[in-house]
């Protein structure tokens, strides 16, 4: 499948989810259904600023918990959905800070803007756009966050370079995403519906980290790593019985990770010149 077709697939599915009025139970959704299973590996309920109606259950971690946000920060959330992480970030940066959510689904942007408006938030803004070309000026952001989004898109290299571009010197990112450790069965990787669901687009952890370093970041750290269990009823849609047994015998090849990386204080790639 071509990159543009994969992006349209993701766009259509997440626009469908935005049109619903109830919380999804999963990040991973099939092409013919809006729910498959829940890979959320963190709990937002105890975080200041959490708004349940803005949480569509689409994440695979809690990046705002590890992002080191402080009062006055300018924060960008890539793939902001209905605004969940943006509202948690707003509580951390306070009235002197600013939060910008970016999503390429107009339906998600409309939902997020509605959630912000009914709460009277004036320092949270939502922009429709492609995170491969982040609609934010260069060297203007203190912290970039994202939750289970980069994995959906094929051009991860370009996205990490864009994150580097928008961050100020000394700025950092905190991203929760899905990676593989070991070998993923080809049946899962080739399934388009699993791509929409954050799984088939996962790349090996070491390759993921190399892409971050290649973009110029320093001080890279995995702050949380959690195996993702896929139920047999989901595996059976893509694998035969022998493949399922082999998959279950080994260690889980699919993990949720939360990664933090920094741009050097001088703004140069991979450290000061």
Q: Can I get a quick summary?
A:
The protein is α/β, with parallel strands linked by helices and 273 residues long.
Structure in words:
- This protein is an alpha/beta fold and 273 residues long.
- The chain has a single domain (3-262), classed as 3-Layer(aba) Sandwich (Rossmann fold), CATH 3.40.50.
- The chain has helices at 3-19, 63-66, 84-93, 106-119, 156-166, 186-190, 192-196, 205-214, 232-235, 241-249; strands at 74-78, 98-103, 124-128, 141-147, 167-180, 203-204, 218-227, 254-262.
- Strands 1, 2, 3, 4, 5, 6, 7 and 8 form an 8-stranded mixed beta sheet that branches.
- The longest helix has 17 residues, at 3-19.
- It is globular, with a radius of gyration of 18 Å.
Task: Record keyword descriptors for this entry.
273 residues, alpha/beta, Rossmann fold, eight-stranded mixed sheet, 33% helix, methyltransferase, S-adenosyl-L-methionine, Methyltranfer_dom, arsenite methyltransferase activity, EC 2.1.1.137
